């Protein structure tokens, strides 16, 4: 018995049903409550979890019988991994299959922001395509500029490749470890966080949200960035302080921002960022292509099936459960 917290792509459900599992899907177009999640989880052996509902000690204590929790995401910041490990519950996630789609979203936000795309689109819709003024509504070039990446894993690497190949951008990055492949193939250079801030023309975030990174892009950080800098975040909204970002954009401390993730989500429709010409916002659609969502659903199902059989999950966040 399996419970999914969203209506999942058939690609995942078919795999589960082919294995003989009974799948119950949350059908409503709203996030289920903590109590509803616990109630449904108690009736099942494994859950396929999508959305921001927390897997914390309270949940794990109530549902310690679960054989597996399979996330429909690469990010797992909503999960208390140490607590899950303590309860010997393996957590699956969906890395790799969404790397290109997410990097494409970062790439499109970079271009959309540099060329004020959404602003110009809105101008036409408002009937403001009138007199040609060669000095108005100007964007900025991207070719030959420096791309800085915070968190050069699989998604960051794809973004770096797009930027290098399309615009000949120099790539610098800040990461815990070294990314030798990116250094060799793209000439990427590892720098300190302060150097990343000071040298990037475009700074794109591709890191997991950890306690260390919570709100790391704040007034202090924006103040160290170039005035022409474009800030891109397709990772998690919690990595930037949104009030500080808004102020930095209003004051011209940095030039622009492209966000696929906000804090909070969903973003309020009256948010000041939505009226800024140098800002592009998307509603967390990084992985939202048909092919990628099917691949994520299939991988989440494969993780779930393995967990229900008591086998190792192919993509496990806490392999220490097997130790
Ligand atoms: C998901 C994501 O769409 O993978 C992630 O971490 O943020 C997105 O791909 C989202 O988490 C829905 O589960």
From TrEMBL:
Pfam families reported in the protein's UniProt record: 2-Hacid_dh, 2-Hacid_dh_C
Molecular function terms from GO: glyoxylate reductase (NADPH) activity; hydroxypyruvate reductase [NAD(P)H] activity; NAD binding
Coiled-coil residue windows: none
Record-annotated D-isomer specific 2-hydroxyacid dehydrogenase catalytic domain positions: 5-318
SUPFAM superfamilies associated with the record: Formate/glycerate dehydrogenase catalytic domain-like, NAD(P)-binding Rossmann-fold domains
Origin: domain of life: Bacteria
Alphabetical list of InterPro entries matching this protein: D-isomer_2-hydroxyacid_DH, D-isomer_2_OHA_DH_cat_dom, D-isomer_DH_CS1, D-isomer_DH_NAD-bd, NAD(P)-bd_dom_sf
Signal peptide: none
Domain D-isomer specific 2-hydroxyacid dehydrogenase NAD-binding: 108-286
Gene Ontology, cellular component aspect: cytosol
Entry keywords, A to Z: NAD, Oxidoreductase
Family that this chain belongs to: Belongs to the D-isomer specific 2-hydroxyacid dehydrogenase family.
Name the UniProt record assigns to this protein: Hydroxyacid dehydrogenase
Source organism (scientific name): Flavobacterium subsaxonicum WB 4.1-42 = DSM 21790
């Amino acid at each position: 018995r399996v419970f999914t917290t969203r209506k999942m792509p058939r690609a995942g459900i078919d795999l589960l049903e082919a294995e003989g599992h009974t799948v119950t899907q949350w059908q409503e177009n709203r996030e289920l409550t903590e109590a509803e999640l616990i109630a449904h989880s108690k009736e099942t052996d494994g859950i396929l979890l999508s959305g921001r509902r927390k897997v914390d000690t309270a949940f794990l204590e109530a549902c310690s019988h679960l054989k597996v929790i399979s996330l429909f995401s690469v990010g797992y910041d909503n999960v208390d991994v140490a607590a899950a490990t303590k309860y010997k519950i393996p957590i699956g996630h969906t890395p790799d299959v969404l790397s290109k789609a997410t990097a494409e979203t970062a790439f499109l936000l970079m271009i959309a922001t540099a060329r004020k795309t959404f602003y110009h689109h809105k101008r036409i819709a408002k009937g403001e395509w009138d007199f040609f003024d060669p000095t108005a509504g100007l964007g900025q070039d991207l070719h030959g500029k420096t791309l800085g990446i915070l968190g050069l894993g699989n998604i960051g690497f794809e973004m770096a490749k797009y930027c290098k190949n399309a615009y000949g951008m120099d790539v610098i990055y800040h990461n815990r470890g070294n990314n030798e492949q990116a250094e060799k193939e793209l000439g990427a250079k590892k720098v300190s966080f302060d150097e990343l801030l000071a040298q990037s023309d475009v700074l794109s975030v591709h890191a997991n949200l950890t306690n260390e990174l919570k709100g790391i892009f704040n007034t202090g950080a924006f103040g160290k960035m170039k005035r022409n800098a474009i800030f891109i975040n397709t990772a998690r909204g919690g990595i930037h302080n949104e009030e500080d970002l808004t102020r930095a954009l209003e004051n011209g401390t940095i030039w622009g921002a492209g966000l696929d993730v906000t804090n909070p989500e969903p973003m309020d429709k009256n948010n000041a960022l939505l009226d800024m010409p140098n800002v592009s916002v998307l509603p967390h659609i990084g992985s939202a292509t048909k092919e990628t969502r099917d691949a994520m659903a299939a991988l989440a199902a494969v993780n779930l099936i393995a967990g229900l059989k008591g086998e190792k999950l192919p993509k496990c966040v806490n392999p220490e459960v097997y130790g």
